[in-house]
Records
---
Amino acid sequence: MGTPAVPVAAAGSTAAEPLADPSALSVSAPKTVEKPKEDPKPKEDPKPKAKAKKSGKKFQLPGWTKWAVIGTAVLMVIGSLLFTMVPDVDPNEQIIEQAIHIELGIPLEEELTDAHFQKVTNLVLRAKGLTGLERLHKCSGLLSVDLSANPELPEAEITALQTKFTNLKITK
């Protein structure tokens, strides 16, 4: 039948020498490991999904969210204060300057100069709710002004204007 089998060196040996004991080559079958029986109930996920912390409160925001909300609120308050700050302008000055713009045909966006105030000769300020006439003191060329239907306008203001401009015709 062929040549008799010669046992070869065992695993890990360096030389290729015949083995003295041929039973050293026997291989045993691996032991079977029994798998543990699975529970009929499914196991819970070891990492629970994000839930609110239970600290006696119904809901608690994460720390960074609180600061983001507070920061946004502060910015909104500061922004609303900045945008609602309007320069303190006398309404009498606005009314008189608007009438001068209209009288001279100057666009309302254009700033009035002293030359503009000197050019004005007639102004109609009827029923404008005026309480003061300080701005009219700059109008050195003023010849007539209609101040009728301004019940809040003090008589002293009208007298002061009449004293400054002696040729001024004032309609009350």
---
Amino acid sequence: MRALSLAGLAALLVLALSSAAPAQQPAARPRPGPPAAPAKPRDADTGGRTTAGNGVVDRNSPVTVDADQLENLQKEGLVVFTGNVVATQNNSTHYADRMEIYLDPKGDGIVRTVSTGNVKIITRDCKIGTARRAEYYDAEQRVILIGNARVWQEDNVVTGERITIYLAEDRSVVEGGKQERVKAVFYPKNQEQSTAANKPPAGAPCG
């Protein structure tokens, strides 16, 4: 397995899980007027990060991808990683046999990614998802696990033919297939136990 560390590729990969920053417009000259009202206090600024579920996820943190091979199809706006693909960002890890990254027409932003073959996703809070195929749509912040999809954390498990996860809304939809219905197993815990269980020790491995 070879690590990909080219500066240009690194910049491209950072876009894989973060939206392109909007261009800054020149500041307009202020017009005379009444004094502005005092600004209302704001919550802590997330600084370009997305809050979802158990914590704040920094979408602008660097992405590292290891793979056996990289193919860059510039005319098609497609970057393909194949062979034991491992993508990591902010303590989350994505495994697959093949990962395709589709760029926008200008080639400076990510439209979607498609992962196939032995797909496994481990989040920083130790949620684990597996499927035959995974699709990620950046504009909608949507992940779709397709084909014998399974998501679990500790003993709690949800399975279905298709699981759609809306990252920005902290919401998911599970759909059954023709052969099997949706199945979910949850183990109730009191609040203190649940809080402690969802906070693994720093540096502790998941999965």
---
Amino acid sequence: MAKLYPREIFLAAKDAAWNRKKDGFKSAAGKLATIETTELRPGYSISRMLKGGWQLSGDHGTVETSRAIADMISYVDLGITAFDCADIYTGVEEMIGAFRQELADLRGERALKAIKVHTKYVPDRASLKTLVFKDVEAVIDRSLTRLKQERLDLVQFHWWDFDVPGYLETMGHLVRLREAGKIDLIGVTNFDATRLEELCKVTDIASAQVQYSLLDRRASGAFSEVARANNVGLLSYGTLAGGFLTDTWLGRPDPGFEFENRSLVKYRLIIDEFGGWDLFQALLRAMRGIANANDTDIATVSLWSNLDSEVVKAAIVGARYADRLARALRAFELTPTNKERQALGNVLAERQGPFGDVYELERDISGRHGRIMKYNLNSGDGGKAQDLTAGGEP
């Protein structure tokens, strides 16, 4: 009998525990769904569901790091091969780096190579006027170290203020880093249609991460047309609207805006733009009708609506842990009837917004959507959102 060393015993025990956990998933959800995949570029394949990382950072409550890492491996074993994070998500790149190491230990290098990690480059708003190549390179190098990668799979670029010139030059810096082998693909996040088209003339843009759900269709129309014309895959976030598009809120009175995390405040504002609490409740009832007919829940219907959209390449699902994952996977199997789709469409026809371009409301620092943002997280401005009621520099 071969001798097992402490590390091997530990890994074997964790593997056995996960096999028991996976059996629990199967018994809870029946036969597990087959995860659809898609390519952002030839040879670059991802699952059409990505695990989000924002919920693992600050402002969302306590996170059990060891559990979160173990559950990332659960996602992989069930077919989720893409993970989303950002340089400004406190501690998340490091957490995914630890997950990658543990995945290699438990599943081997082949399993690790199948994983794609999508991070972001979000320069501080206060630094936009002075950014130079070395600033960009320093953040990319930091992400490489945190994620334990030799090359970043996808870097999604964000620019806070279009009135400040420099995003084309900064994109040029990212292209230079791609040519140096530090980045594989370049994407954008929260750019509007005009700037997306402009950037596509500069370099190949593989993806655009945008807020998109039954409550917010701003990425449809002109933006999606520009994306389609330039082979830019749309990756949707806000799929569950911070948890509002779940059974938790069905039939509940309007909670107002006093929440413990900014995610709920952010999406409660979107509900107002959509048409208010009563119309939101009508939407949940229509979604519950589909859920009843398909023996599932509202969250799964919400995810299905994104995956079913011709606009969305893949959907990001923000969750700290994997306890609801098996049920969420049923979104790939939902087949609502025409009658059920029509009931949902009748509610959506009454929506009052949000309208305008992608991220237009959030980009207004004097507006209520912009005031909850944190604009300088790379420099450690994580204590509170900016008070920008006067519209000045943060």
---
Amino acid sequence: MDGPDRVGEPVKGNKRPRARRFLLPAMLALATGVVLVLVLAIGGGGPAADGTAAEDAADAAPAETAGRAADKKGNAPKVGEVVPRKWRDVTPDGVWTGPKVSGPLVRVEGRKPPPPKPRYKRFFRVMVLTAGTIRAGGTRIHVDRIQAPPFDEFCDYREGGSWPCGRVARTALLRLIRGRAVECHLKDGKLADDLKTDCRVGKQDLAAWLVEQGWARVGDASNKALVAAETEAKSAKRGIWREEKPGG
């Protein structure tokens, strides 16, 4: 054919022999590839020639059977129970396999989750009722671990006379808060109308501050830190432990 066919012209008969010239080499190449694959498989180049795969399958069969039996029973391994191996080391050469394991594998107790953090609620516009009681909205809160003097309590001087230590103790707590927000621990995670719990202003624990300044007695004798603070406040004659009149 001298030139390209035009639209509408019949295709000449010499195009089909050109396709046949390419078909014969392709068939020869395919046949050569099939022969090479057969030679490699018969000559020992296959993965199962040295019997390694068969031996690995035989070694893994008992462990896999034991694992399937355990799964059928539905019982998970207990702490201290010996667990049969179900795997083999397939780490390639040149790669670190980690620490060597000798002996049977033993199920150990899992790591326990950390205890939940205390939940605090922030109260605003706090009203100080006594040295150990505050109110925020409709919630009355008593500071835990202490025994604060009532508002109308009077303390005696050593040489006679008394002074309104309950009222002064309330004023001391009022000056510490100074309109700031008070955070209190919700022990059960729920807010009630009347609470007895630990409270703080910023990072200052109210119970610790009241005992250290002598404005409250220890209510929990097992708390060594508070007992030590109370002993030191008594020795220094602070707060309600004062025995002499001011300026005396």
